[in-house]
Specification:
- With about 110 residues, this protein is of the alpha+beta class.
- It has three helices and four strands.
- A four-stranded antiparallel β-sheet has the order 2-3-1-4, with helices on one face.
- A hairpin with a 5-residue loop joins strand 2 and strand 3.
- The longest helix has 21 residues.
- About 10% of the residues have low confidence.
Length: about 110
């Protein structure tokens, strides 16, 4: 298998362009909803709030909406954060996805 340098350059340019586009799609500051899903647990909402507050300290309990799944096995939490930058959103996303209670973050 041989590598084609011309195609490698195209791929790098495409990735760079996608990153630049992503950063330009959201105007900051903005209120940004994050959908977090996890297994049913009495401390799920409090845990999500603690994790989000690491990067968005002004987030309060009133910024969370909690819903049970139809069978009651999972919880869905929408956390609306005041986002100041893409980096802040990326940090929140990484922290949430790393937590063992969290299954999915959208």
């Amino acid at each position: 298998l041989q590598r084609c340098p011309e195609l490698s350059n195209i791929a790098v340019k495409k990735v760079t362009a996608m990153s630049e586009t992503r950063e330009n799609l959201i105007e900051f500051p903005t209120d940004f909803p994050l959908k977090i899903m996890g297994v049913q647990h009495p401390e799920f909402a409090a845990t999500v709030l603690d994790v989000v507050r690491q990067y968005a300290p002004d987030t309060e309990e009133k910024h969370l909406t909690i819903r049970d799944s139809s069978k009651g096995n999972y919880l869905s939490c929408t956390a609306t954060v005041r986002a100041e930058s893409q980096e802040q959103l990326d940090n929140i996303y990484r922290a949430l996805t790393a937590h063992p209670m969290v299954k999915v973050v959208l």
